Backbone:
Protein backbone atom coordinates (compact mmCIF):
# COMPACT_ATOMS: atom_id res chain seq x y z
CA UNK A 1 0.00 0.00 0.00
CA UNK A 2 1.37 3.41 -0.99
CA UNK A 3 1.36 6.07 1.74
CA UNK A 4 -0.13 9.46 1.00
CA UNK A 5 1.76 12.68 1.74
CA UNK A 6 -0.74 13.38 4.53
CA UNK A 7 0.10 10.08 6.25
CA UNK A 8 3.88 10.48 6.22
CA UNK A 9 4.15 12.94 9.14
CA UNK A 10 2.10 10.59 11.32
CA UNK A 11 4.34 7.66 10.44
CA UNK A 12 7.39 9.76 11.29
CA UNK A 13 5.90 10.77 14.64
CA UNK A 14 5.14 7.15 15.49
CA UNK A 15 8.78 6.40 14.79
CA UNK A 16 9.88 9.16 17.14
CA UNK A 17 7.48 7.87 19.78
CA UNK A 18 9.08 4.45 19.43
CA UNK A 19 12.50 6.02 19.97
CA UNK A 20 11.28 7.91 23.02
CA UNK A 21 9.88 4.73 24.50
CA UNK A 22 13.09 2.82 23.87
CA UNK A 23 15.26 5.31 25.75
CA UNK A 24 12.91 5.03 28.76
CA UNK A 25 14.06 8.47 29.86
CA UNK A 26 12.70 9.80 26.58
CA UNK A 27 14.25 12.78 24.88
CA UNK A 28 15.12 14.08 28.33
CA UNK A 29 17.91 11.51 28.26
CA UNK A 30 20.21 14.50 27.93
CA UNK A 31 17.92 17.17 29.40
CA UNK A 32 19.39 20.36 27.97
CA UNK A 33 19.76 18.86 24.50
CA UNK A 34 16.41 17.05 24.39
CA UNK A 35 14.59 19.33 21.94
CA UNK A 36 17.62 19.50 19.67
CA UNK A 37 17.96 15.71 19.60
CA UNK A 38 14.26 15.41 18.85
CA UNK A 39 14.62 17.67 15.82
CA UNK A 40 17.56 15.72 14.46
CA UNK A 41 15.87 12.37 15.03
CA UNK A 42 12.73 13.58 13.32
CA UNK A 43 14.46 15.01 10.27
CA UNK A 44 17.51 12.94 9.35
CA UNK A 45 17.39 9.50 11.00
CA UNK A 46 15.40 6.69 9.35
CA UNK A 47 12.93 5.01 11.70
CA UNK A 48 14.71 1.65 11.68
CA UNK A 49 17.90 3.24 13.02
CA UNK A 50 16.43 4.90 16.10
CA UNK A 51 17.57 2.06 18.33
CA UNK A 52 21.20 2.62 17.31
CA UNK A 53 20.99 6.33 18.09
CA UNK A 54 19.36 5.57 21.43
CA UNK A 55 22.27 3.33 22.43
CA UNK A 56 24.74 6.02 21.42
CA UNK A 57 22.90 8.67 23.44
CA UNK A 58 22.80 6.41 26.47
CA UNK A 59 26.57 5.96 26.20
CA UNK A 60 27.06 9.69 25.78
CA UNK A 61 24.85 10.52 28.76
CA UNK A 62 26.86 8.23 31.03
CA UNK A 63 29.98 10.19 30.11
CA UNK A 64 28.33 13.60 30.37
CA UNK A 65 27.22 12.70 33.89
CA UNK A 66 30.88 12.72 34.93
CA UNK A 67 31.47 16.27 33.65
CA UNK A 68 31.13 18.59 36.62
CA UNK A 69 30.99 21.91 34.78
CA UNK A 70 27.46 22.16 33.36
CA UNK A 71 28.48 25.20 31.30
CA UNK A 72 30.62 22.87 29.21
CA UNK A 73 27.63 20.63 28.49
CA UNK A 74 25.51 23.67 27.58
CA UNK A 75 27.72 24.11 24.52
CA UNK A 76 25.82 21.20 22.97
CA UNK A 77 22.88 23.55 22.42
CA UNK A 78 24.48 27.01 22.41
CA UNK A 79 27.66 26.62 20.39
CA UNK A 80 26.99 26.36 16.64
CA UNK A 81 30.20 24.42 16.02
CA UNK A 82 29.39 21.91 18.75
CA UNK A 83 25.85 21.55 17.41
CA UNK A 84 27.28 20.54 14.05
CA UNK A 85 29.68 18.02 15.58
CA UNK A 86 26.95 16.59 17.78
CA UNK A 87 24.58 16.26 14.85
CA UNK A 88 27.26 14.46 12.85
CA UNK A 89 27.95 11.98 15.66
CA UNK A 90 24.24 11.17 15.73
CA UNK A 91 24.29 10.56 11.97
CA UNK A 92 27.35 8.35 12.26
CA UNK A 93 25.93 6.40 15.21
CA UNK A 94 22.85 5.57 13.14
CA UNK A 95 25.11 3.87 10.59
CA UNK A 96 26.72 1.33 12.93
CA UNK A 97 25.80 -1.40 15.39
CA UNK A 98 29.19 -1.16 17.07
CA UNK A 99 29.14 -0.39 20.78
CA UNK A 100 32.83 0.46 20.48
CA UNK A 101 31.97 3.14 17.93
CA UNK A 102 29.27 4.55 20.24
CA UNK A 103 31.95 4.86 22.90
CA UNK A 104 34.41 6.53 20.52
CA UNK A 105 31.79 9.05 19.34
CA UNK A 106 30.91 9.80 22.96
CA UNK A 107 34.55 10.32 23.90
CA UNK A 108 34.92 12.56 20.85
CA UNK A 109 32.07 14.82 22.01
CA UNK A 110 33.41 14.99 25.58
CA UNK A 111 36.88 15.93 24.32
CA UNK A 112 35.56 18.37 21.71
CA UNK A 113 33.57 20.16 24.42
CA UNK A 114 36.72 20.70 26.48
CA UNK A 115 39.33 21.08 23.73
CA UNK A 116 41.04 24.44 23.30
CA UNK A 117 43.88 23.43 20.97
CA UNK A 118 42.21 22.51 17.67
CA UNK A 119 40.09 24.43 15.19
CA UNK A 120 36.56 23.45 14.15
CA UNK A 121 37.63 22.30 10.69
CA UNK A 122 40.23 20.04 12.32
CA UNK A 123 37.69 18.54 14.73
CA UNK A 124 35.36 17.87 11.79
CA UNK A 125 38.17 16.03 10.01
CA UNK A 126 38.97 13.98 13.12
CA UNK A 127 35.33 12.90 13.41
CA UNK A 128 35.24 11.97 9.72
CA UNK A 129 38.36 9.85 10.16
CA UNK A 130 36.85 8.06 13.18
CA UNK A 131 33.72 7.29 11.18
CA UNK A 132 35.77 5.85 8.31
CA UNK A 133 37.89 3.51 10.44
CA UNK A 134 36.65 0.11 11.51
CA UNK A 135 37.00 -1.16 15.07
CA UNK A 136 40.17 -3.18 14.41
CA UNK A 137 41.87 -0.23 12.71
CA UNK A 138 41.13 1.89 15.77
CA UNK A 139 42.53 -0.83 18.04
CA UNK A 140 45.71 -0.88 15.95
CA UNK A 141 45.97 2.91 16.05
CA UNK A 142 45.60 2.95 19.84
CA UNK A 143 48.24 0.22 20.09
CA UNK A 144 50.77 2.25 18.11
CA UNK A 145 49.96 5.33 20.19
CA UNK A 146 51.32 3.45 23.22
CA UNK A 147 54.77 3.26 21.61
CA UNK A 148 54.89 -0.43 22.55
CA UNK A 149 58.18 -1.85 23.78
CA UNK A 150 59.29 -5.36 24.72
CA UNK A 151 58.02 -6.20 28.16
CA UNK A 152 55.39 -3.43 28.26
CA UNK A 153 52.46 -4.35 30.48
CA UNK A 154 49.15 -2.87 29.40
CA UNK A 155 45.71 -4.36 29.98
CA UNK A 156 44.46 -2.92 26.67
CA UNK A 157 47.17 -4.78 24.73
CA UNK A 158 46.50 -7.96 26.70
CA UNK A 159 42.77 -7.82 25.97
CA UNK A 160 43.31 -7.20 22.24
CA UNK A 161 46.31 -9.47 21.59
CA UNK A 162 44.41 -11.75 19.18
CA UNK A 163 43.64 -8.74 16.99
CA UNK A 164 47.06 -7.16 17.37
CA UNK A 165 49.12 -10.30 16.79
CA UNK A 166 47.21 -12.59 14.39
CA UNK A 167 48.72 -15.86 13.29
CA UNK A 168 50.99 -15.63 10.25
CA UNK A 169 50.66 -18.79 8.20
CA UNK A 170 53.57 -20.89 7.00
CA UNK A 171 54.02 -22.29 3.49
CA UNK A 172 52.43 -25.63 4.48
CA UNK A 173 49.26 -24.18 6.03
CA UNK A 174 45.92 -23.56 4.30
CA UNK A 175 45.50 -20.12 2.81
CA UNK A 176 42.64 -19.26 5.15
CA UNK A 177 44.97 -19.54 8.14
CA UNK A 178 46.58 -16.32 7.00
CA UNK A 179 43.46 -14.23 6.44
CA UNK A 180 43.63 -12.38 9.76
CA UNK A 181 47.28 -11.47 9.25
CA UNK A 182 46.66 -10.29 5.68
CA UNK A 183 43.71 -8.17 6.76
CA UNK A 184 45.83 -6.65 9.52
CA UNK A 185 48.29 -5.52 6.87
CA UNK A 186 45.43 -3.97 4.90
CA UNK A 187 44.18 -2.19 8.03
CA UNK A 188 47.64 -0.75 8.63
CA UNK A 189 47.80 0.42 5.02
CA UNK A 190 44.45 2.18 5.48
CA UNK A 191 45.80 3.92 8.58
CA UNK A 192 48.74 5.04 6.48
CA UNK A 193 46.43 6.40 3.76
CA UNK A 194 44.75 8.50 6.43
CA UNK A 195 48.24 9.73 7.49
CA UNK A 196 47.76 8.24 10.96
CA UNK A 197 50.69 5.81 10.70
CA UNK A 198 54.03 5.97 8.96
CA UNK A 199 55.73 2.68 8.05
CA UNK A 200 59.39 1.98 7.46
CA UNK A 201 60.25 -0.35 4.59
CA UNK A 202 62.55 -3.25 5.44
CA UNK A 203 65.84 -3.12 3.52
CA UNK A 204 68.01 -6.10 2.56
CA UNK A 205 71.37 -5.67 4.30
CA UNK A 206 73.33 -7.02 1.35
CA UNK A 207 71.59 -5.52 -1.69
CA UNK A 208 70.31 -2.39 0.09
CA UNK A 209 67.04 -2.96 -1.79
CA UNK A 210 63.52 -3.12 -0.27
CA UNK A 211 62.39 -6.63 0.67
CA UNK A 212 59.17 -8.08 -0.77
CA UNK A 213 56.77 -10.31 1.18
CA UNK A 214 56.53 -13.66 -0.67
CA UNK A 215 52.86 -14.13 0.27
CA UNK A 216 51.37 -10.71 -0.40
CA UNK A 217 53.82 -9.40 -2.99
CA UNK A 218 53.94 -6.14 -1.02
CA UNK A 219 57.00 -4.42 0.37
CA UNK A 220 57.95 -5.70 3.79
CA UNK A 221 57.63 -3.24 6.63
CA UNK A 222 60.10 -3.29 9.48
CA UNK A 223 57.96 -1.14 11.79
CA UNK A 224 55.20 1.44 11.94
CA UNK A 225 55.15 4.70 13.87
CA UNK A 226 52.15 6.81 14.78
CA UNK A 227 52.02 10.32 13.33
CA UNK A 228 51.06 13.58 15.05
CA UNK A 229 47.62 13.32 13.43
CA UNK A 230 47.30 9.72 14.63
CA UNK A 231 48.08 10.80 18.19
CA UNK A 232 45.47 13.55 17.93
CA UNK A 233 42.76 11.14 16.79
CA UNK A 234 43.59 8.78 19.66
CA UNK A 235 43.40 11.66 22.14
CA UNK A 236 39.90 12.52 20.94
CA UNK A 237 38.67 8.95 21.48
CA UNK A 238 39.96 8.66 25.04
CA UNK A 239 43.56 7.61 24.48
CA UNK A 240 44.81 9.11 27.73
CA UNK A 241 42.65 6.67 29.70
CA UNK A 242 44.14 3.74 27.79
CA UNK A 243 47.70 4.98 28.31
CA UNK A 244 47.03 5.08 32.05
CA UNK A 245 46.60 1.30 31.95
CA UNK A 246 50.30 0.89 31.14
CA UNK A 247 52.73 -0.20 33.86
CA UNK A 248 56.49 -0.22 33.80
CA UNK A 249 58.32 -2.78 31.65
CA UNK A 250 59.71 -5.75 33.48
Residues:
Amino acid sequence: MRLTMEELPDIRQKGIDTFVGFTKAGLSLIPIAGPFISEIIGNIIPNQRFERVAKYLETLKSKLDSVEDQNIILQLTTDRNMLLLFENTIKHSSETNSEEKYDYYSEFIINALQDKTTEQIQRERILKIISELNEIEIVLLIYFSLRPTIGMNNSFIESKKDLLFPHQRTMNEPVENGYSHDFKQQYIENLERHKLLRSKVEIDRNTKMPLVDVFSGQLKRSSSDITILGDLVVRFIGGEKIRSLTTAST
